[in-house]
């Protein structure tokens, strides 16, 4: 007997318990993660609130403690709505790090935001579609990459931007990033893909006196930005890794989901996550580690995926994902190699380094400063622990632009006070904000690493 | 017609407040006296279950029938106090099938709507039920807030002309020629507004009739009147969880036993309980093993309770009564029915009746019966309307309006406030003044606190039970001083300080039995905060009042720069 049979057959005295069907088949377990233990962990100390960059500049924002454990506890099963202020959270996730008691704040915020968008936000509103378009950056970037030159001109065409702000609520203050004429993946395929990478890795192993068939294999999660915009970062990753004898593969992948989490578009994020987890899980099974050069991508794979989705293999992928420099610092004597290197030319500069919030949450905020401190020919200075304020799509929203810039103020000041006039960060959108606030050119640490360690990197196409 | 008879009701629990409402609605002149706050005794120490009657469907069918009848009444007249959660009687593999069937038959016989649901269906309703729960009977159990219910009954009584005296202890029952003629009452020197200018003084309250509705304390009043009332107080422990592990009342379907119920209550869940006879309703041991045993046993039904955070535990005493000739030895065998003891018939003492036994769910019915009895003493033929007329706060209203926009409150805070205030929400929350959240755990705003202060005076524990402020997971760690601050203006510094002390003491009391795991961290933080920022660890003997004249008025207070000869670091202000 099952519950699909007519109710009239239901005999209350002889209920259909246990014997005739498997309960799990009839009522599948709820997909929602249980946040009760998380709410139990909060003892209200407010460390999260004091670390929140939005609360610092916006007195109307009630802060992460309210958005997370308080709201969760106050809101019961039926009929309780999520407060709309959850859309003012930028998902920087600093509160996770600030909490001394392990409250899964960002998980609570992501869950609440997802519920808010799903159940309370009008699907025909401009805000919904603006957020959807912004969070599906990959789709826009994919289209733009087909006609990169045209896109670069039109996307920053004044009247078009004015129209976008008025109709879509995308701020006209910012300049869209330039699209590369050749995407990273196009370059990668042209170069010979994984076969070529294996050949080069083997050559480098032999040069370094390593076993030619050493088990050094990584799957590169380049993310959207390295693919469509800053392809030089992706190329640098490949060259540096190959130099250390790693074979690189660039598996099928979609957006990490970071902008989707921040906009409460959990269904979109899940669709993309399923592709990413499926392709990464297969490789991890075979002994590959997953490497990301964007700290928000690695954050998503490591923390947000297992906190929000129940997908086969998700825990394994999360446990085997690393940020690109972090991984080399673990497995190679990167510091010694950098100490012996020197850079000249374009990258022989003083850098004003900003650690992205998502890097901070992974404990990576000091790695670039520690690494490049000894590099001859270049200098690096940490511009402090403030948030850049852009938080991905957040600072692109017309109504959030002022908040975003107010948060960034401290970083801009510190960058101006630093010796260098070139910025450095791991995060593509922090880079946009740094550039926007100071006019500096911004580079990725992998680019400097490549310059220091790889001979004649630009000798190949 | 002369003036209506004056009735003195002793006891400010659900029964007393229900009687006061009923009698005053029938036009009688009523004075209610209560030694503590409203709900101070047993009512404030119950698990908040609105019985469907299912619990008594096997052992005590008369009580079961009364329960389902009153359950239906309270859903209508007390909407803002009741949450219809539904309830389940859950059967584990080791529980007796015969008893399960008997329970089902009992429910049907007593007119309690009952359906059998499979284990899988039960888990679909309550995902945290144990995997091996076989099946369950669903019944219309609910959750009820005893504080709000009693406060609303008292408010209704006041609307009908009754006088409600809290913090007023009966010191003697006045008797002349074998007839009770009144009470001698001592008003506590508390700070409540209901002290009637007789702080610490005694008052003789003359009454045409006295109703003793003191539950477990009935024997004490009896003693003063020279009659013997053998109430058999039985203690039970209850533990409050930080969050709701279940949204349905979960009962264990087995004959009798300790630790067999989980009741979702507001933001929390309450575990209950034990049943052990005690000598004195005020002095009895509160022991840690009782709490441990309860969590362990209930984890068989809801495994996640094992590791979940408890925020406090409390003990209550049931006012059980049975006619002495029955002679039950085990308190679980004593009936939950109530008894009306007319001391004229029983002890040849005119002018007083005691009501003993019974339970919270049937408080209104008890009130009706004793009010009928009182009226018959005076030949008054007045109908009872307590079953039809909604309580203040439960008049027609909908919680579905957009209160957040209307009152400028954050969504869950606005919704919570409206659930607590019911139809009074407009009158309380419509304020043009700033309305910050004072208690963030329970989402209580200044407007609601001020309304409670207006209703109950400066006693912050009375404010607490009206609003739930300080009853959340920090147990007042972050809001007790704010609540005390809300007394400013109306009350002077020493009154506010005394009220603050009273609230803090009460909050710490219940936490003593939850000092492990997360609540221990909470307590440590609360202690540090209160000791280091509020000087709560001062020498209690050092009671000198603060010399406010030693402080300057602050920058701009008098148009000046706020110089009082010292800099902010305490050093002399001798230039920058």
Automatic annotation (TrEMBL), chain A:
Q: Where is the composition biased (Acidic residues)?
A: 1-12
Q: Where is this region: Disordered?
A: 1-22
The protein, known as: Anaerobic glycerol-3-phosphate dehydrogenase subunit C
Domain 4Fe-4S ferredoxin-type, which positions? 78-111
- Which GO molecular function entries does the Swiss-Prot or TrEMBL record give? 4 iron, 4 sulfur cluster binding; glycerol-3-phosphate dehydrogenase (quinone) activity; metal ion binding
Organism of derivation: Saliphagus infecundisoli
What's its EC?
Answer: 1.1.5.3
Q: Name one Pfam family in it.
A: CCG
The record's top EC class is: oxidoreductase
**UniProt xrefs under Gene3D superfamilies:** Alpha-helical ferredoxin
The stretch of residues making up the signal peptide is none
What keywords appear on the UniProt entry? 4Fe-4S, Iron, Iron-sulfur, Metal-binding, Oxidoreductase, Repeat
Automatic annotation (TrEMBL), chain B:
| FAD dependent oxidoreductase domain ranges (all copies) | 7-359
Please state every residue range assigned to the domain named BFD-like [2Fe-2S]-binding: 438-482
Give positions of region: Disordered.
534-576
Bilayer topology reads: Peripheral membrane protein
Instruction: Write down the chemical reaction(s) this protein catalyses.
Output: a quinone + sn-glycerol 3-phosphate = dihydroxyacetone phosphate + a quinol
* Source domain of life: Archaea
Per its UniProt record, the required cofactor names are: FMN; FAD
Pathway where this protein functions: Polyol metabolism; glycerol degradation via glycerol kinase pathway; glycerone phosphate from sn-glycerol 3-phosphate (anaerobic route): step 1/1
| Protein's cellular compartments | Cell membrane
Report the enzyme's class at the first EC level.
Answer: oxidoreductase
Database matches in InterPro entries? BFD-like_2Fe2S-bd_dom, BFD-like_2Fe2S-bd_dom_sf, FAD-dep_OxRdtase, FAD/NAD-bd_sf, G3P_DH_FAD-dep, G3P_DH_GlpA_su
Gly residues bias: where? 553-563
Q: Keywords assigned by UniProt?
A: Cell membrane, FAD, Flavoprotein, Membrane, Oxidoreductase
Give the EC number(s) under which this enzyme is classified.
1.1.5.3
Per the record, its GO cellular-component terms are:
glycerol-3-phosphate dehydrogenase (FAD) complex; plasma membrane
Q: What is its main location?
A: membrane
Q: What does the subunit comment say?
A: Composed of a catalytic GlpA/B dimer and of membrane bound GlpC.
Q: Which family does it belong to?
A: Belongs to the FAD-dependent glycerol-3-phosphate dehydrogenase family.
> Can you say what this protein is called?
Glycerol-3-phosphate dehydrogenase
Species of provenance: Saliphagus infecundisoli
Source taxonomy: Archaea, Methanobacteriati, Methanobacteriota, Stenosarchaea group, Halobacteria
